[in-house]
Amino acid sequence: MLRGEVVGVRTLPLPRLVAGRDYADDMVSTLGPVVGQDVVVDATKLLSGTTSFAYQLIERLLAEEKANSVLLVGAPADFAEYATSAARELHVTDRFDLAEELPRTAAAS
User: Fold this and answer.
1) Comparing 34 with 6, which gets the higher pLDDT?
2) What end-to-end distance do the CA atoms of the chain give, in Å?
3) Pick from 60, 4, 54, 55: nearest CA to 30
4) For the whole model, what pTM was predicted?
5) Contact between 70 and 37 (Cβ < 8 Å)
6) What mean pLDDT comes out for the span 80-104?
């Protein structure tokens, strides 16, 4: 751990529309280091997202940044499928999951 980092849950809220790999990179960068942390991606406000955004989001968080896990919450069905496919393709399904509602710990943060 660096400079008093707390290992725990980080939440990444998605806006109504998301598209493109660069935007996914920018959003992940706002979290700072996530190595060994659980990340909750709050997609409850998301209306539409592209395959490229979903793929880059999963690749960055789980394959590159080495997050402990990613929980995608409240995503539209098509976006959830894009992210699930990315996790399959990247062989990180053991660290990826979907949920309908935010966990209590993430909702409180």
Assistant:
1) 34
2) 21
3) 60
4) 0.87
5) no
6) 94
Give the DSSP letter string of the chain: --TTPPPSEEEEE--SEE-SHHHHHHHHHTT---TT-EEEEE-TT--EE-HHHHHHHHIIIIIIS--SEEEEES--HHHHHHHHHHHHHTT-GGGEEEESS--HHHHH-
Between CA 41 and CA 27 the distance in angstroms is 11
Q: What confidence category does residue 105 fall into, taking pLDDT thresholds of 50, 70 and 90?
A: low
Q: How far are the Cα atoms of 1, 3, 19, 73 from residue 76, in angstroms, in the given order?
A: 35, 37, 14, 9
Residue 26 clears pLDDT 90, i.e. is over it: yes
34, 10 contact by CB (below 8 A): yes
Distance of alpha carbon 106 from its chain centroid, rounded?
13
Q: 69 is written with which tokens?
A: 């896990």
pLDDT confidence tier of residue 3, bands split at 50, 70 and 90: very low
